[in-house]
Design goal:
By secondary structure, this protein is α+β, with helices and mostly antiparallel strands. It has helices at residues 6-19, 67-73; strands at residues 3-4, 26-33, 39-46, 54-58, 61-65, 77-81, 88-92, 98-99, 105-107.
C-alpha cells in the first residue's frame, strides 16, 4: 500500500487546480535509476491506468504506480512539507536503506 498524508492531498489538489489538470487525472509515482543514491522518485500527472498498474486512492486523490516501481514503494507514505528550509514532496519509504540529502533519491 502507498499512503498519502493530508498535506500531500491538499497540495496535489491545489496543483491540479493551478495547472488546469483534468479532474480525472491522477498522480503517477515511479522509481527510476539515477540520482546520487542510485534510485530516484518520479512524479507526474497522468490519465491512463495500465492493466497491471497498482492503484491507491485516499480522500479523492489517486496515486498509481507500475508493478516494478511498487516493489520499492510498498509501505511508503507520500507527504508534503513547506517552510523556511524549502518545500516539496517527502517520501517516507521504509524500503530505503539510504537517502540523499534532498530526499529525492534513495538506495535499497
Amino acid at each position: 500500500m502507498i499512503s498519502i498524508s493530508d498535506n500531500a492531498i491538499k497540495h496535489i489538489q491545489r496543483v491540479k487546480l493551478e495547472e488546469g489538470t483534468k479532474t480525472d487525472s491522477f498522480l503517477r509515482v515511479n522509481v527510476a535509476g539515477g540520482g546520487c543514491s542510485g534510485l530516484s522518485y518520479k512524479l507526474k500527472f497522468d490519465q491512463e491506468v495500465k492493466p497491471d498498474d497498482k492503484v491507491f486512492e485516499q480522500s479523492g486523490v489517486k496515486i498509481v504506480t507500475d508493478p516494478k516501481s511498487y516493489l520499492y514503494l510498498i509501505g511508503m507514505t507520500l507527504d508534503y512539507e513547506g517552510g523556511l528550509n524549502g518545500q516539496g514532496f517527502v517520501f517516507q519509504n521504509p524500503n530505503a536503506k539510504k537517502s540523499c540529502g534532498c530526499g529525492s533519491s534513495f538506495s535499497v
